[in-house]
Amino acid sequence: MTEPLISARNVKKYFDVGGGKLKAVDGISFDIYPQETFGLVGESGCGKSTAGRTITRLYEPTGGELFFNGKNIYKLSRREMQEVRRNFQIVFQDPYASLNPRMTVEDIVAEPLDIHHAYKNREERSERVIELLRLVGLGEEHILRFPHEFSGGQRQRVGIARALALNPKFIVCDEPISALDVSIQAQVVNLLKNLQDKLGLTYMFIAHDLSMVRYISDRVGVMYLGHMMELAESNELYKNPIHPYTKALLSAIPIPDPEIQKNRKRIILEGDVPSPINPKPGCRFVERCHNAIDKCRKETPVFEEKSPKHFAACHII
Amino acid sequence: MENVLEVKELKISFQTFFGEVEAVRGISFNVGKKETVAIVGESGCGKSVTANGVMQLLPMPPAFFKGGEIIFNGENLLKKTEKEMQAIRGNKISMVFQDPMTSLNPTMKIGKQIVEGLVKHHKMSGDAARKKAIEMLELVSVPQPEKRVNQYPHEFSGGMRQRVMIALAMVCNPQLLIADEPTTALDVTVQAQILELMKKLQEQLGMSIIIITHDLGIVADVSDRVVVMYAGQIVETGLTSEIFASTKHPYTKKLLASVPRLDMSRDEPLYSIDGTPPDLYIPPKGCSFYDRCSEAMKVCKEHVPELSEHSATHLSRCWMNHPMAKNAYSKDGGGK
What we know:
The structure holds 2 protein chains of 2 kinds. By secondary structure, chain A is of the alpha/beta class. Helix content of chain A is 33%, strand content 24%. In chain A, the strands form 2 sheets. Chain A has an 8-stranded mixed β-sheet with strand order 6-7-8-3-9-10-12-11, with helices on both faces. Chain A has a 4-stranded antiparallel β-sheet with strand order 2-1-4-5. In chain A, a hairpin with a 2-residue loop joins β1 and β2. Chain A is globular, with a radius of gyration of 21 Å. Chain B has an 8-stranded mixed β-sheet, with helices on both faces. Chain B is globular and about 70 Å long. In chain B, β11 and β12 form a beta hairpin. Chain B has one domain: Rossmann fold, CATH 3.40.50.300. Chain B has 12 helices and 12 strands. Classes of the chains: A alpha/beta, B alpha/beta. At the A-B interface, α6, α7, α8, α9 and α10 of A face α6, α7, α8, α9 and α10 of B.
């Protein structure tokens, strides 16, 4: 068994808001192995983006430990952290908002290189930028252009080139395709897959599009209101979901085939995701769960291995 | 089947600083009674412009109707005055917008917004209107309607707001409901709730629905017929089963292949359509999909493909499907 590249242990991130604590991420644990893609899914407000940012320590964690290559990075000082941070990067959701409109593509892609003094002279800098742009399917002719001159898909490629600048080992992709059109989504997903093979990258892929997550990920975690509900290998999770929330979530995805769609039985969940501010004890899903028992209201279920490599947090399994 | 709406050769353009943008370039389709028609396509293909055009909600100028007819119950809507349109809008045809967060008035109580149309169109009294508002909230399954009716939009979640939008659209019992990406801003579990609700209401009240979406899963779920748009034109139209089972246009085929399906193997490559849709400042002379089509021929660049008929309901606009195409091939002696 290979050693995990990333192991999160009981990671927590609370925000202080008027009227209490918003428990965005409330004690999640998982491992990510080298060169795999770990998918993280859930509805909006479940804490998946916060999880991505807390793991890369863009948000200071409220608690927990995060081991990267065996080192707890939450204990590092600012200076040490900067050195380690070269190894992990983020690709953001909105390619329209995450690129500075006043910088040229060259400066955007070279910014991480500037910060880490990763070149000797200007030629080396622009050579590296061109190399990165080629890697993501853009070219030399693009370096002096500004973000507004690109389409959404191309902008996302610029964002990916920037993330690759320092040869990171681990990239958090925070909904990298949800702002793009269907036909462009496939382009970006294929690019991410190719880069993974070529450069040996490890991804954490955050999305709410479950079919896309299944397609790209080796293992998938399902979050609900700050808790991890279920985690398993991608094929296993989708074929054989055990948590009631995962079951409902999967049955809610419309399948693009009228024959199958007509004969499917759907589990329609009542209501919405409750507020994560001062959540009640017990299972987070209890109010929308069809199978809830008394114990679910009193005790928070433990996230544990229910069958080999298949984790879930539920009392009734 | 009797048609509620017939759109004939509709052309809508926008006059901009850089010139004319031909957003909708001669589309024709119809919607039958109690039927659900889905319009699919990428952003910028003209699907929302079509919907807003039917409602005549486009800002004019810059938008203008360049030609065509929109026939609703036998009358051409483009010949109506603004005053006559007001009697139709929200009353006979109503619309649900994409973003429930911004399309409700934040300073008005929910109940008042729901019955605004009734008070306007049917001169209903205050008391009766309030009762009706509660009834409508019940219809769209909003819990505690008596209490909710006096609340403001910010007190509702996204899914609940979209229910309110639907209640608001349904209140005058319209013959046609246009839903422009009604679930795009919502989570999948809530999306499933809203789609179920729309199906239920259609059965109860017997209206026709045009649903605009880019999600082929939703199309398969709710629609009877599908209109596929690309760069302001209809490239393929047919019964939902025809579109999914015997796809004829390369664009539709690729669109279907580019979404991962839950039942597909993870090793299958995901098909991607290279390039981007054409710029409609200078619409292409021939087929608008020419640049991105892997099966493009010489004729596609020069001439807009004619409609070919595959069945009484299934049409596509591609030279490959033209009855003359195969003959033309062999006459050239070219073959492959």
